[in-house]
Each structure stands twice: as C-alpha cells, then as structure tokens.
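seq:
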Amino acid sequence: MIATPIAFWIGALNMPLDQAIVDGLVHGITVTRNVTAGQLYGAIALSVISPIIFLFVLNDMRRLFASYRTGDVLTKACANLIKRIGQGFLGLALMQFILQPVMTALLTMHNPPGERSIAISLNSEMIFFALSGGLIIVIGWAMREASNVASENRSFV
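struct:
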C-alpha cells in the first residue's frame, strides 16, 4: 500500500506527455493533437481519483483484518469498516461512470465543432463494483445488528 502511490508518482513524473497518454486516458474517442498541457494535466488528475479510492478501500480492509486478528469480530467498528468497504466499491463504480464523460469533454474541447464528444459508458466492471458494493453495504448493516445483539448478550452474562 505504501509502494503503490510512490510508484505511481515516480511513473507520472517520468512520463512524457504525448499523444499516447491522451489515447490511454480515453478509449474510442478522437482527440486532436492540440490538447493543451492544462487539459492533459486535468485529465491525468481526474484519472487518479479511482486509484485513491481503491487505496482507501484497501486500507479499510487492512484495518478490518487487523481487528479480526485481535479477536474483534462482532463489533460496531468492524461493521462500520465493512460498510465503508462497500461504499468504496460503490464509489469506484460511480467514479468510473462519472469521470469518463468529464475526461472526454475535457480532452475534446479543442476539437473542431462537430468533432467534440462526451462518451458515456457502462461496462461489466462498473456493474460488478456496484453490485459488490451494495452487497457489502448490506452485510455491514447486518453485522452492525449482529454486534448490537452480541453486546446485549454480553451484558446479560
């Protein structure tokens, strides 16, 4: 988890800003060669949002398994972590759906009239993250109820 952002920034700082980068950011969209550096940096900054969300999800998973290792299984903290992991997966799906049109509009704004575009797409990865996120959120809610029952049972004993 520590090496991923470091490797990303080292790669980003050493990457030449050329047409190959533009083509890698948006797929299937014709982008003219006169993309400004500001547009390119804006698109690169937008493309960093999903990996940042993913790192937060990984950190929550690490914290959840650390709690499990210490024996804290049916606690509100674990239930909240599970729910946050689900929200992160749902956020990944939404960010992919939102960022694609924003990035295509940004990168094609200097195209001649009639060649500007906004691409909206829905793929199986977005659906998978949305369904997984929803399921994990529901599991988090159920775990919270289970932790309430477990704490109530401990108070009787």
